[in-house]
Design goal:
By secondary structure, this protein is an all-beta fold. The chain is built from no helices and 20 strands. The chain binds calcium ion (3 copies).
């Protein structure tokens, strides 16, 4: 998916607008054959509830697999809030909801109520706070550096219907292509939305840190329901399971800190485990 978190940040938490986590999410898939079904993520209902002065606003996903005739019932605990199934929107303002309310959504198909979504609690601050695990800083060529949260992208890495976050950590001595100098290693982490870290990939000393060096893709490329991560790697990249790609000792950095020699790899990583699945030179 497109990376949407562009600004370097010194925060060690990611704050995600609840609005980004609700509503319709459709993955645009192949469009070459009109009759072929599009590949889509098999996401959950994605119920999000936020506290407002006027009550609790609950929103949820209309799934790409659902007919336009689908409608919904919304429950606070065991109490159905709507008198007739909701047909025109995927949100509801519960004017008597409180911070301790919990909500479930049931689709109604052909007049038959379907099974309940996972229960959603109310977000107290109108955002989801995802705690991050900031890597320890270091020093390279006598210059100390720390890590800042940088680009991030989302995908369902483990096929559970919920998004996970892939986050790039940028060392504070990262350099634009026009600037000489050594940099710290670039690190990729994957987090569950509750902050559980799934894995960490260390791109190693032969991938220079800077805004123009590491672009990574998060997408279910083989259609098995779990997203992969694809990016440029090099000798010394360590995957999410601790296995080194290529040579662990090769060092292609020149005296100005640039990496201008050595092989350039492209690696597909498992989104679930961070394991390198395949690498091409
Ligand atoms: Ca997931
Ligand atoms: Ca998960
Ligand atoms: Ca996959």
């Amino acid at each position: 998916m497109r990376s949407w978190f562009r600004k370097p940040s010194r925060l060690t938490t990611l704050v995600i607008s609840s609005l980004l986590l609700a509503g319709p999410f459709l993955e645009i898939g192949q469009t070459t054959a009109a009759a072929a079904p599009r590949q889509m993520e098999l996401l959950s209902r994605g119920v999000v509830a936020v506290k407002l002065t006027a009550g609790v606003l609950v929103s949820w996903r209309l799934l790409g697999t659902e007919a336009s005739s689908v409608s919904f019932n919304l429950y606070r605990g065991s109490t159905k809030l709507n008198t007739t199934p909701i047909t025109s929107k995927t949100n509801y303002l519960d004017t008597t909801g409180t911070i301790s309310s919990t909500y479930t959504v049931r689709a109604v198909v052909g007049g038959v109520e379907q099974s309940a979504s996972p229960s959603a609690s109310v977000l107290a601050n109108n955002y989801l706070d995802v705690p991050l695990q900031q890597p320890a800083g270091g020093a390279v060529n006598g210059s100390a550096y720390t890590y800042n949260a940088n680009d991030a992208s989302i995908g369902d890495l483990d096929g559970d219907g919920e998004y996970e976050i892939v986050l790039k950590w940028d060392p504070s001595n990262s350099k634009d292509n026009s600037q000489s100098g050594y940099t710290g290693n670039v690190i990729l982490d994957a987090y569950e939305l509750n902050g559980t870290r799934k894995w960490r990939i260390d791109l190693g000393k032969n991938i220079r840190a800077g805004a123009h060096y590491t672009q990574f893709l998060v997408y279910d490329f083989d259609g098995d329901g779990k997203a992969e991560i694809v990016c440029k790697t090099a000798d010394g990249t360590v995957d999410g399971t601790g296995i080194t790609i290529g040579s662990a000792t090769a060092d292609y950095r020149n005296s100005s800190g640039y990496v201008l020699t050595g092989p350039e790899f492209l690696t597909v990583f498992s989104g679930d485990t961070g394991a390198a699945l395949t690498t091409t030179n």
